[in-house]
Amino acid sequence: MEPQKPHVLFVDDEKGILATLRRLFHEEDWELYFATSAEEGLRILKKESMDLVVSDVRMPGMNGIVFLNEVKKNYPRIVRIFLSGYADHKAVTKAFADGCAQQLLPKPWDDNELRQVIKGALRQAMKQQEKFQGLQQAINSITALPPMPQTYIKVKEYLADPDGFSVDQVAKVIDQDISLSAEMIRWANSALFGQRQGVESVQRALVVLGSDIVEGLILAHSVFKPADDKAVPGFSRREFHTHSMACGITAKKLMELRGMRESEFVDRAFTAGLLHDIGKLVEEVCLTAAFEEIVGLACDQQGTMEQAEQEKLGTTHEEIGSYLAEWWSMPSFIVNAIRWHHTPSLCNTDREIIDSVHMADVLVQRFALGQSGNHCPPVMDPACQARWALTLEQLASLREEVVKTLP
Ligand SMILES: [Fe+2]
Ligand SMILES: [Fe+2]
Fold first, then answer.
1. Quick one: which of 40, 60, 89, 247 is 20 to 30 A from 302 by CA?
2. Is the pTM of this model over 0.85?
3. CATH architecture for the domain at 224-405
4. What is the C-alpha separation between 68 and 42, in angstroms, rounded?
């Protein structure tokens, strides 16, 4: 198949500027589109798939900031560039800082600079699309993504409404699922949450655990249910569950080692650690044949799952898992931890949580707790390692603590 030509859309209300841009880029092997208003630009985007959008800021009707924000919301894969005159400087700088566009070009511009910036942005866009294609193909070949667990939906509804929220209501929902109730009570009694024992009801467990942990445990409970009929040879759900739990526990302990006390960090690290590899379960359940080959390939090559996934699917469990997490509207710290748990330094938000999950993931494999499907030791991100600077003694005692806490 021939590679697709890059598609670029220019939006400016001044026809003269559009004509200049057309002249500047007409020799490139690109499909060029031009719109004299943001509204027209949005109409084009509905019909044509685009890689890059360059927009003026000041235009009658919808302005460029509102327009690029729309593009960002509805077509997040398109790279966005502002063309802005001096008069709009303040508003544009703020919009730029808010992530409305990835590049900012002055008006009037220098032709060479404009060419270089646009070409660079386009290269970036094409790389992004290429990466996305693998994920898109994998997702397209899934007839139905797993539905969001009903218990999670109900509990989320209660938690989202602080006026109508009562622990009893949430407990009633959880009580309907006996194994989930038992699991909540078990975790609430664990030393990990400061209790030695004595929690006997779901109500009390909810208070001890707090909403972040409760949400995470409900999600984990539904996704880690043993796959009854179709066990994939070489991939043990039980071992994988242990890997995930150990990762959640280790991430939480790492946060505590760092002196973090706020549940916003500590509890979230636990939940994110627990769920970091759910992409593998999506593969196991929804792409079973490919997953069998991936498990086999990782074993034959003595490599990691993500290397084998890249070879077989053109995407990885990080991308597939974060896609599902977004689909299920999980909180963004979970989406980010799933997406970046192997490459934490590439993400600038939720840094502590993602770092802790990354290190926990590497450490539990070194500690030989559970099995994640890898057949070689994963590498710790050097920048992350430097940020945390853990000593060997700290690591040694960490293993002991995690083993003690594992159910
Ligand atoms: Fe992973
Ligand atoms: Fe993992």
1. 247
2. no
3. Orthogonal Bundle (1.10)
4. 10
